Amino acid sequence: MATAMLHSLFRPRAMDDFPGPFARRARETAEELRRDWDCTARDAAENRRLDELHASRDDYRALLSGHLRLLEDYLALTQVHQRAFGPNPSRVSELTAAVSELKRLHDELFPRWQTADDLARILIEKFSLPADALRELATRHAPPASWLNETADPFSDD
Q1: How far is CA 46 from CA 50, 53, 106, 120, in A?
Q2: How big is the CA angle at 129 (ends 127 and 133), to the nearest 5 degrees?
Q3: What pLDDT, in 10s, does the model give residues 80-134?
Q4: Are 120 and 54 in contact (CB under 8 A)?
Q5: How far apart are CA 146 and CA 140, in angstroms?
Q6: Distance, CA of 141 to CA of 134 (rounded, Å)
Q7: What is the pTM of this model?
Q8: Contact status, residue 37 vs residue 105, Cβ threshold 8 Å
Q9: Domain coordinates in residue numbering, the chain
Q10: What's CA 84's distance to the chain center, in Å?
Q11: Which of 79, 75, 156, 67 has its CA nearest to residue 106?
């Protein structure tokens, strides 16, 4: 039987828990990478450090793409292990969720993010409140009374 032969050929003891502890944390790690992006991007926008964030673009893309490829390869190998040695659906589920999360993050940013202006547009979309939410806030919070007495145009060059 091929499976028995496969067990003889490829069943090192260290592989008994394949894909190991990493698989149990793959989704958590992917979610953490998403939170890190959100937090860092918000901080860069609030503190006018978009140029610094943009300067990290190529390395960030390489790291994100590399981790995504690693997870995709790990998932594929885990599926081969399942076919050969029996199912472990929680590991496949964990890796699938991690791949999906990192792919969403990657696709949200790339290839749109090429320039600093692209980054600014992405962050404006991400962090701006939708028009409906702004209208709702405006109905609940009137402008300060002092604004009604102002005659100067704050947007003019005068």
Answers
A1: 9, 12, 22, 12
A2: 160
A3: 888 877 777 888 888 999 999 999 999 999 999 999 999 999 999 999 989 999 8
A4: no
A5: 18
A6: 10
A7: 0.76
A8: yes
A9: 17-142
A10: 32
A11: 67
